Amino acid sequence: MKAKEVLLLIFIVVVGVGLHYLENLKLTIDDWEVSSLFRGESYLFEEVKTEAPAGTLEIVNSHGSIQIEGVETQAIEIALEKRVWRKTKQEAREIADQIKLLATRDSQRLLLTTNRDTFRKKNFTTGFRVRVPRDTSISVRNSYGLVRIAGVKEVELENRQGRVDIVEISGPVRVQNSYEKVSIMDVDGECRLETKHSSALLSRIAGPVLVNCAYENLELFDLKSSLDLESRHTRIKAVRIAGPSKISGSYEQISLSETGPAIIKGHHSPVEVDTARGQLEIETSYERIRLVDLEGDLVIRARSSRVDVTGARAARLQVETSYEPVNLEDFSGQLELKLKHANLTLSPLNLDYPILATTEYGNIKFFWPESQTARLEASSKGGRISWQLPFSPDENTTNGLAVVRVYRGAADRPEIKLTTSYGNIDILKKE
After folding, report:
1. Does residue 75 lie within any of the structural domains?
2. Does an H or E element contain 190, and which?
3. Element of type H or E holding 192
4. d(CA 307, CA 328)
5. For the chain, what is the radius of gyration of the CA atoms?
6. Entry pTM
7. Does 61 reside within a domain?
8. What's the short name of a Pfam family annotated to this entry (predicted)?
9. Residue 44 falls within a domain, yes or no?
10. Pairing, β 200-205 against β 182-187
11. How many domains does the chain divide into?
12. Does 389 fall in a domain?
């Protein structure tokens, strides 16, 4: 016998033995017995039941979907879907007949569950489709399946490793889930979400929103009240947030648009805000801060972060960062700025407010608005000052410390003080 024939014979024997054992292979994952693909098909059976209404409907389930709809009805209509995996339909029916819908009452609470835990072999799923009166409160504990709830009074939900869709809730919503997407929309009450490894969408929430999330994307739209958000490794996009908002994040972008007052604390997180009305406080490190169209006081405390601000109008602006450039354009308000080891560009909208800007080991460019006056003092230790305006300063001296002063007699005008060490200052006309 040739070597190829020997190898072919060995391969056939190995495959045959493997198929024999695969036919009898059984694994258990989270109480689910997983047999090989050769062990049959799935068969669907249904059990229906009607119950009197209850103040609260509670469902406890595992390995199956739950769909609850609030409608104009005076009863609770229940359909239990039983999907069974067996070799034949008759074998599946025998198992389905043993799976029971269990309903118990306690005061104003109706509990629905099944006898799943009594089975040694659990090659089946149980899914609920329920119609309830709209004024019913819902409490659900599920895993490994979709939960969809619409048109009810209140929702409390825990769905481990399952997708969640919630819409049109007249009261509060509380959700916990993991590893599958969450969508919560059109809620008139408070909304609380705790999720991990799940992307989430919250939209049109009237009450306060509290979110704790990690390791996925979060999108927020049209929040009418306050926002308290704690995140880790989560990319955040928030649009039309009334606020006040308190947001913390790490290692992913935090983006806000059309927001009210907000406090943003990032760690290695780029921060972008486009259109804000109200006080804005931002902390981050090692990533860029970009802000556009602000009305309200601004406070930035950053480390090794580039800062770009365009169109800020405030009573007070405070900026502190290092090692990356700072650019403030078309801003109006009292400015206090501290910068180290980086260049600074200032282009104010007007000179109606005091400006105090200090940098070390960096250059300053200051663009003077046309037809504006203010008392200016610019000084540079170890650097030069370049005056490029069409009128001469009151004082321009260089003796180790370069100093330029202008409009010293304009006591009724704000004071502008620009200071740098080991850097140059350019004072130019704003175009």
Report:
1. yes
2. none
3. strand 191-196
4. 8
5. 33
6. 0.85
7. yes
8. DUF4097
9. yes
10. parallel
11. 1
12. no
